[in-house]
Amino acid sequence: MSTTSPAINIKQLDVKYGNKQIIGKLDLAIKKGKITALIGPNGCGKSTLLKSISRLIKPSAGSIFLGADLDILKCPSKEIAKQLALLPQVTQSPEGITVSTLVAFGRAPYLNQFGMLKAADHRQIALAMQQAGVSDLADSYIDQLSGGQLQRVWIALVLAQDTDILLLDEPTTYLDICHQFELLELLQQLNDSGKTIVLVMHDLNQACRYADELVIMREGKIIDIGTPQTVFTETMLSEVFNFDAIVIKDPEANTPMSIARTRINKRSKAA
């Protein structure tokens, strides 16, 4: 039996917005070296969970550990930033700076007291831009970019941080279908190199294809956890998403995929 510590270990987590409880008594162990997808209906707490792990939100109760014993709620922010990086659902881009300048912010946890980038920082920035497909935009101003281009720049910033754990909240937002699959395949490559990846996804078929494990959430609680093959079922889709669908095998990836049942009668068209 494996005794490997989880990459992230969450115990009895409570998170509130004002008096409204968003997450209640949540326990979750994120497996090291795996891709874990958080899925569930809108407002179920997926993004709040990522924000809690990355300390953007302070829980009202519970604990979050990296590895066996590193309590993120008690660790200096700079040290946490060297171990996990977050791409939030909503980003706010500063005006009047270039792509390369924005991506360089990802190296902030590694800068010395003078704030100077070293040769190793420049190499990581260049690699991150190449991986995200934005090297040709290095000298462009970010306020001149399309939504899809800007999303890839933010992904480059996260990659420049070069952490063992990546937290990504709907990373395919604004990306066309080609760039969506390019990003997901890049994440798979990064995972193959040893990185632990946790992402919120709304495309359930993509989640099944690329994730090792699905965490299914509803109303701030975990309904089920497991491989796509074990937990992605027609019953789950109906009960969690109120989604009437059939589940078949993806002919390309051999993973489960859903197809919505038609709710209206097909109309025949005259030739």
How would you explain this protein's 3D organization?
- With 271 residues, this protein is an alpha/beta fold.
- The strands form 3 sheets. It has a 6-stranded mixed β-sheet with strand order 6-7-8-3-9-10, with helices on both faces. A 4-stranded antiparallel β-sheet has the order 2-1-4-5, covered by helices on one side. The protein has a two-stranded antiparallel sheet with strand order 11-12.
- Strand 4 and strand 5 form a beta hairpin.
- Helix 4 runs antiparallel to helix 5.
- It is globular and about 60 Å long.
- The model has no long low-confidence stretch (mean pLDDT 92).
**Mean pLDDT score:** 92
User: Using DSSP, what is the number of strands?
Assistant: 12
Give, in spatial order, the strands making up the sheet with the most strands: 6-7-8-3-9-10
Shape from CA axes?
Answer: globular
User: Roughly how many Å is the radius of gyration?
Assistant: 20 Å
Total number of helices: 9
Would you list the SSEs in sequence order as H and E? EEEHEEHEHHHEHEHEEHHEE
How does the helix and strand content classify structurally? alpha/beta
Largest sheet: 6 strands, mixed
Q: How far is the N terminus from the C terminus?
A: 64 Å
Report low-confidence residues grouped into runs of 5 or more: none
- Percentage of residues in helical conformation: 25-40%
Fraction of residues in β-strands: 25-35%
